[in-house]
Design a protein that fits this description.
Structural class: alpha+beta
Order of helices and strands: HHHHHHHHEHHEEHEEEHE
Strand order of the largest sheet: 2-3-1-6-7
Strand content: 5-15%
Number of strands: 7
CATH superfamily of the largest domain: Rhodopsin 7-helix transmembrane proteins
Length: about 375
């Protein structure tokens, strides 16, 4: 009965490893420039190899076939290599060339264990070194406050404890519990997948967020704007854009320094974000050029919102060199025309912004009032 139970547990483990590996391999194929999912797939397939060959070796009634021995040790070595590589990916550290050499040596030695029994000890020692290196790198990243590395480190610790417990069972030191190594691998896989997913989501968010102000950058804004355009086309609801520019921003930078200019830009971005609805989008296109996207808002509504934003920005102050600095903004509004590309709507709002600048700054102008001029033409 115990033999059937062990086969049953190993079968469940093998199925989990296979499904997990295939899913991670598919994720990697969609984003080949992010290797963490590839190494998770390698880890899962290596664990599967250890699982299958270990079960076959355990059932062998005669001397262990050399091929199975080599495959088993190759799986063990690949597991430790993959764990270390995932740790390095999450720690944002590029593996040194010498590490690649050591990894290659480990796998070559593991492949030869079936034919040359003397390589077993060297393979086991190198595998242990790899696992210790993974623990060390994980601890180092965790001490720096990396949450994802802490999650992965927790999984590695659980796996090590399960392997030690299973080894104690083999040596007769404790009662052996079937499936303990599989439990360790499952915990490791789940925590590692969660850590990698968190990191990828963070990287995706960062690629769409302006690091200085925390609002959307150009890429993030355009992606969201195209979605808003599609929704507007389907629903027939209006969509408007407000182009925003800080008045005399170059003078602020020249007089108080770029650090002060950054603080001013951050305060204006915060003010705009606080002053619009949750469904509205605020983004920084570059420099002091900001834009606001207003779903379900026509030209008259956009002008009212722009006046509200102008007043809110004018009331805000920034503490600089022991004093308070007030800033003003100029704004241009444009309602999207039917079938109009969003880039063209932004351009018309930009033209209106130029007119607001030309009329004396700290004011709002609508696209219908402006000649065909671009933001690049206006002065500070």
């Amino acid at each position: 009965m115990g033999g059937y139970w062990a086969w049953y547990i190993d079968g469940i483990g093998a199925g989990f490893y296979l499904l997990f590996g295939l899913s991670r391999l598919d994720l990697w194929r969609r984003e080949v420039h992010r290797p963490a999912n590839l190494w998770l797939a390698v880890l899962a397939f290596s664990a599967l190899l250890v699982n299958v060959t270990g079960r076959l070796l355990g059932e062998a009634s005669t001397a262990a076939p050399p091929v199975l021995v080599s495959l088993n040790f190759l799986g063990v070595g690949a597991v430790t290599v993959a764990i270390l590589e995932v740790v390095l990916c999450l720690a944002r550290r590029d593996p040194p060339r010498w590490l690649r050499v050591v990894e290659s040596i480990l796998l070559i030695l593991a492949a030869g264990t079936g034919a040359y029994g003397g390589l077993v000890v060297a393979t086991e020692m190198l595998s242990a070194v790899m696992l210790l290196a993974a623990l060390g790198a994980g601890i180092s990243a965790s001490l720096r406050g990396d949450v994802e590395s802490r999650l992965l480190l927790g999984g590695i610790v659980v796996l090590v404890l399960c392997l030690v417990l299973d080894l104690g069972g083999e040596l007769g030191m404790v009662s052996r519990i079937p499936g303990v190594p599989i439990l360790g691998f499952v915990v490791l896989f789940l925590l590692a997948a969660h850590a990698v997913n968190r990191r990828l989501l963070q990287e995706e968010s960062a690629s769409r967020t302006d690091p200085l102000t925390g609002i959307l950058n150009r890429r993030g804004f355009l992606e969201m704007a195209h979605m808003a355009v599609s929704l507007s086309d389907r629903s027939g609801r209006p969509l408007s854009v407000i182009a925003v520019d800080l008045d005399r921003f170059k003078v602020i930078n020249d007089r108080y320094g770029h650090t002060a200019g950054d603080r001013v830009l951050q305060e204006v971005a915060r003010t705009l974000s606080r002053s619009v609805r949750e469904q509205d989008l605020v983004a920084r296109l570059g420099g002091d050029e900001l834009v606001v996207l207003l779903p379900d808002t026509d030209a008259a509504g956009a002008r009212r919102v722009a006046e509200k934003l102008r007043e809110a920005a004018g009331a805000a102050t920034v503490e600089i060199d022991g004093g308070s600095l007030s800033v003003t903004i100029s704004l241009g509004t444009a309602e999207r025309r039917p079938g109009e590309p969003i880039a063209r709507t932004i351009q018309r709002a930009d033209h209106a912004l130029y007119l607001a600048k030309e009329r004396g700054r700290d004011r709002v102008a609508a696209a219908e009032d402006t000649p065909a001029r671009s933001r690049g033409d206006h002065t500070e």
